[in-house]
Design a protein that fits this description.
The complex is a heterodimer of chains A (83) and B (169). Chain A has 83 residues and is mainly alpha-helical. Chain A has four helices and no strands. The model of chain A is unreliable at 32-40 (pLDDT under 50). By secondary structure, chain B is an all-alpha fold. In chain B, 87% of the residues lie in helices and 0% in strands. In chain B, helix 1 (2-74) packs antiparallel against helix 2, helix 1 runs parallel beside helix 3 and helix 2 runs antiparallel to helix 3. The model of chain B has no long low-confidence stretch (mean pLDDT 87). Classes of the chains: A mainly alpha (83), B mainly alpha (169).
Chain lengths: 83, 169
């Protein structure tokens, strides 16, 4: 009787292990997907919005100063992903 | 007896799957943690780039503004009010830089493995960044006001006759 129980128990573990191997195999094929998502979440090195702001001049006349002050922009920030 | 065998078979089947599911949960937690850590890192990097850009740009404008003001002073113009406005803008810019650095440091100090638990810390970092941005905006506004003042004193002096006509009006 004990042998029978052990046999059935072993069979269960073997079958469960087989299922596990099958699942692991399927995951291996799709394993890269979440990692790609994480990698894609890294911010790019360039800031396109900043690059649209013209570089300041070097002249000290009022018109140049006025243009550079008016061209200056303080961009909006989005912190919604922190909440 | 059949029941016992069935239960044993079931336990044998389910136990490896349970173990595997726990492993998957752990892996998911790690991935979410990694994603969250990138969120804080992205904020720190973006803010560093932008705040440095604002500071350097406005510092250069203020330096040129000062040179212009010194020239006008040399011509005998009363530059004191404009100088006071420009000094105010510079002081605000220094404050903005300091607050910005504190915000960036706060984002970098967030522990990537404890993102969920650090809600208070990350919201504090966000608030610092908002304050710094507000100070940069105020600096910009002060510069605009100083510019108005500069334009007024830069106007060529009216001849004595024109002054008399303006006074009469």
């Amino acid at each position: 009787m004990i042998n029978k129980i052990l046999l059935v128990g072993m069979a269960g573990v073997v079958l469960g292990g087989c299922n596990l191997v099958t699942l692991t195999g399927k995951e291996a094929a799709t394993d890269e997907q979440p990692k790609i998502e994480v990698a894609a979440s890294v911010a790019p090195q360039t800031d396109a919005e900043l690059e649209t702001i013209p570089s300041p001049a070097t002249d000290n006349d009022v018109e140049s100063l006025e243009k550079d002050i008016n061209d200056t922009q303080i961009l909006d920030e989005d912190f919604s992903d922190l909440e | 007896m059949k029941k016992i065998l069935f239960v044993i078979l079931l336990i044998g089947l389910v136990t490896p799957l349970q173990v595997h599911a726990e492993g998957l949960r752990e892996q998911r937690r790690e991935l979410v943690g990694e994603f969250r850590s990138k969120v804080a890192e992205n904020h720190a990097n973006r803010l560093e780039k932008r705040f440095t850009f604002y500071y350097e740009r406005m510092e250069k404008i203020i330096a040129r503004f000062q040179t212009r003001l010194d020239t006008l002073k040399g011509q005998g113009k009363d530059t004191a009010p404009t100088q006071a406005e420009l000094n105010g803008a510079m002081a605000q810019l220094v404050l903005a830089k300091s607050k910005g650095e504190a915000a960036i440091a706060a984002f970098r100090a967030l522990d990537p493995t404890k993102f969920q638990e650090q809600k208070i810390e990350r919201l504090a970092a966000r608030d610092l960044a908002k304050e710094a941005r507000g100070l940069f905006l105020e600096t910009h506004q002060l510069l605009k006001e100083a510019l108005k003042s500069l334009k007024t004193i830069s106007k060529p002096a009216l001849p004595a006759a024109s002054v008399a006509v303006e006074s009469a009006n």
